[in-house]
Amino acid sequence: MAISVQAPNMEKIINKSGKSPQEVADFIALVKRSMEPCQKRIDVVEAGDKRFYSVERRGLGVLNTEFGPFWQFNFAIDDQWEKYSVLVRGDIDLDTLNPVFKRKERLVLRTDSGCETGQVFGDQTCECCEQLKLAMRTLAELGEGIIVNIPRQDGRGMGLTFKLATLWLQDVLKVHTVESASLLAPGGVIDVRTYSGVICILKFFGVPSSCAIDLATNNPHKAVVFGENGYTVSDQLVPVLVAPTPHTARHLAAKGKHLDHKGLNGQEG
Fold first, then answer.
1. Beta strand pairing status for 145-150 and 106-113?
2. pTM higher than 0.90, yes or no?
3. Does any domain span residue 209?
4. pLDDT digits (tens, 9 = 90+) for 212-222
5. 171-181, pLDDT tens digit by residue?
6. Total domains, the chain
7. Angle at which helices 177-184 and 249-259 pack, to 10 degrees?
8. Measuring CA to CA, which of 12, 23, 211, 233 is 20 to 30 A from 254?
9. CATH at 176
10. Could you give the residue numbers annotated as active site?
């Protein structure tokens, strides 16, 4: 059912804002402009293959989080993941609506795969929610940086149906995350994530390849695509280390042993 309301009293809004009538009008126009899709065609190399992507910024706004303010951008990219939610700590150029970072030579970036079970519903066998919060806290302390969340990369890109099935196996058979995935994965492939979309977003924002990327992850495999596209990734990854719990300890150890993830008990980034 559609719900309609009366137009707000602009005089009251002007008084509450402390701004002049012209400033209020200009700001409302700016926000409306931010809702207009902005599309770019961007080329990316991944696994040796070059492809052009359609990258569309669909909106942005301010989040007031427990770690302070962040900008959230809503992106759509014509790849298999489609939706990208980008958190930015930093300033915004009001003409281009792109981030402006004080440090031009280095940028901290976190690639955050979506995890509905952990980040939305609080499944305790997963540390993804704590990792996201730690990344946000890190950017807040640094004063700037980017988190690219890819909501549809549940289960290392295998999908939510696959992820839920692995959780059921883990609960009943007491197996760890790698074992449960291997029991179900066709051909033994348990990670099909790609990261071209992250490069698309860097290029959309105008981050030059001369800017070194401090990659906030414990998973060294995520660094490869940056080098393929001319970006230099720091030799030392920015760790995103969450202390293991009785629910996560065996999974973290398995990621370190079988998937080469670095850091405390092999936590995944």
1. parallel
2. yes
3. yes
4. 999 998 888 88
5. 999 999 999 99
6. 1
7. 60
8. 233
9. 3.40.50.10990
10. 191, 193
